Amino acid sequence: MSHNSESRVDANSVCYRHPNRHSYVLCQRCGRTICGECQTPAAVGVVCPECLREQRANRTPSQKRAQSWAARGAATGIFSSVTNVLIVVTVFVFILQLVFRPQVTEALQYAGLYSTPYMFEPWRMITSIFTHSTSFFLHVFLNMYTLWIFGRALEQMLGRWLFLTLYLASGLAGSLAVMFLSDPRVPVVGASGAIFGVMAAFVVIQRRMGNQMRSLLVLLALNLAIGFIPGTSIAWQAHLGGVIGGALIGLIVFENRAVSQRRRLWTWLIALCTILVLLSFTWLVFPPF
Q1: Which strand (E) or helix (H) includes residue 90?
Q2: Are 164 and 225 in contact (CB under 8 A)?
Q3: Nearest to residue 81, comparing CAs of 12, 164, 24?
Q4: Hey, how many other C-beta atoms are within 10 angstroms of the C-beta on 180?
Q5: How far is it, in rounded angstroms, from Cα 164 to Cα 279?
Q6: Strands (E) located in the chain
Q7: Could you give phi then psi for residue 227, rounded to 5 degrees?
Q8: 217: pLDDT strictly greater than 60
Q9: CB 184 within 8 A of CB 118
Q10: Is the pLDDT of residue 51 over 70?
Q11: Over 90: is that where the pLDDT of 77 sits?
Q12: Considering the entire predicted model, what is its pTM?
């Protein structure tokens, strides 16, 4: 198939041991691209199998025992990935919402009013993506299930820090859309903006690699459309903002996937995140009322 031949030619975005697997994670020692199967957690980042063997050959007996325990914990622990951590934190916050409602929800939810000089609490743009409606249990379940599916795939491809940046920046983009496009007095909760960003980034990267993503595109479009149905109480603004933010990050990551472009990749991402943060202060300077 055409996309497989493309993968073999582009050595910067495929695992050096598995040419049919796309990845943007680099060995922190030698800089080679490695897929999720070939990654071993190190003190900083991950290492490839060859570098791991070289490290093990030079270990002292005490280092062997310490690293054995560390590797075992990293491989089996619930906090072994950012995706797992995000799910655990979100579920924990949801439990707090159930136990201490409505105090927890009211302390973390976001509305455009919190971006004005009258009630300036900008951190809610991020805290709101870890909260969900306590009257609709299916909301948090569907969001976490979607995050578990797409999050694991993207995290293995991008690495922990890139994936965390994608998730939080998409959530912030969703909150910005809520600020600009919805009633500033109506609060919103939910991780949907961030999760729509993850899905959009996945679609963009896969499409740019030449893979057919028609079914996922249809699914993404249908979920976006549902938010526009009257009476659904869904913040379609957050979905739209998340999609735009996630798609931009996916494009930046793909276009700067080469080893030599790593610095430029983070420069673009920092610039984008800076723009999002600056936009969050718009109503502080120019209040809407």
Answers
A1: helix 82-100
A2: no
A3: 164
A4: 16
A5: 20
A6: 40-41, 46-47
A7: -65, -20
A8: yes
A9: no
A10: yes
A11: no
A12: 0.78
C-alpha 138 chain-centroid distance: 21
At 65, which amino acid appears? Answer: R
Tokens of 196: 């729509």
C-alpha–C-alpha distance, residues 209 and 195, integer Å? 21
* Side chain identity, residue 282: T
Contact assessment for residue 3 and residue 211, using Cβ atoms and an 8 Å cutoff = yes
The pLDDT tens digits of the residues spanning 145-201 come to: 989 989 998 998 898 899 999 999 999 999 999 999 999 999 999 999 999 999 999
Cα angle at 198 between 144 and 229, to 5 degrees?
A: 75
| Separation CA 41–CA 52 (nearest Å) | 10
- List the structure tokens of 228: 């526009």
- With bands split at pLDDT 50, 70 and 90, how would you rate the model's confidence at 67? low
Q: Which residues contact 87 (CB under 8 A, 6 or more apart)?
A: 144, 147, 148, 151
> d(Cα 13, Cα 157) in Å, to the nearest integer?
9
Q: Residue 2, class by beta-carbon neighbours within 10 Å (0-12 exposed, 13-18 middle, 19+ buried)? A: exposed
φ/ψ (deg, to 5) at 166: -60, -50
Q: Is the pLDDT of residue 23 over 80?
A: yes
Question: What pLDDT, on a 0 to 100 scale, did the predictor assign at position 229?
Answer: 65
pLDDT confidence band for 87 (50 / 70 / 90)? very high
Q: How far is residue 18's CA from residue 135's CA, in Å, rounded to a whole number? A: 46
Predicted local distance difference test score (pLDDT) of residue 284: 93
CB 12 within 8 A of CB 258: yes
Q: Would you state the structure tokens that stand for residue 157, as one six-digit string?
A: 């491809």
Hey, is 123 helix, strand or coil? coil
DSSP string, 170-228: HHHHHHHHHHHHS-TTS-B--SHHHHHHHHHHHHHHHHHTT---HHHHHHHHHHHHHTT
CB-based contact 46:39 (threshold 8 Å): yes
